[in-house]
Amino acid sequence: xxxxxxxxxxxxxxxxxxxxxxxxxxxxxxxxxxxxxxxxxxxxxxxxxxxxxxxxxxxxxxxxxxxxxxxxxxxxxxxxxxxxxxxxxxxxxxxxxxxxxxxxxxxxxxxxxxxxxxxxxxxxxxxxxxxxxxxxxxxxxxxxxxxxxxxxxxxxxxxxxxxxxxxxxxxxxxxxxxxxxxxxxxxxxxxxxxxxxxxxxxxxxxxxxxxxxxxxxxxxxxxxxxxxxxxxxxxx
Length: 236
Prior knowledge:
three-stranded antiparallel β-sheet; 8 helices; six-stranded parallel β-sheet; alpha/beta; 30% helix
């Protein structure tokens, strides 16, 4: 029996219920800094110590939170033999992985990794006992290191793979995103015309004319429970 290919595209809303602050909230992490000062190549070049500490603070916060029911249900769905589940996320946290998801594509980088300033393909993992970095940090290859984050105005290396995954989906699920950040927001336009699309968000964006779209106007945890019921009924 052919497995149903389900591709999730998740944004900040899926982690917000775990207590991860979102950049776009009024009390979000940008409030104390101009965005480009802490999340751009120019900002990093001007004040690398500030940028390192900004992401150190995010890692400290990440270690204080846990995956929520939405993360866990996505991971649970991947264990169902009826489905082939892939996750594309704009989030830089590791909550999908900590919930048990094994096939996760990060579009905007990963907090718990650092990469070489000289070679973007040289990446190292950080451990929970080693989350603090500074401009003096050197990789095992001797290179100066930076947060493994796609800064504003930098290319998104994984977008081509993400577009291919979206094009292969039988079911495409968007969770917790304003659909305002490109190129990730364009993935919904990459699906086949016969692909069923579900959009889970308490305040969904206007996506215009999208075929086969069902909006579940709920927060991620509640919306995922509803989606599970829908998928279970359809696959009987």
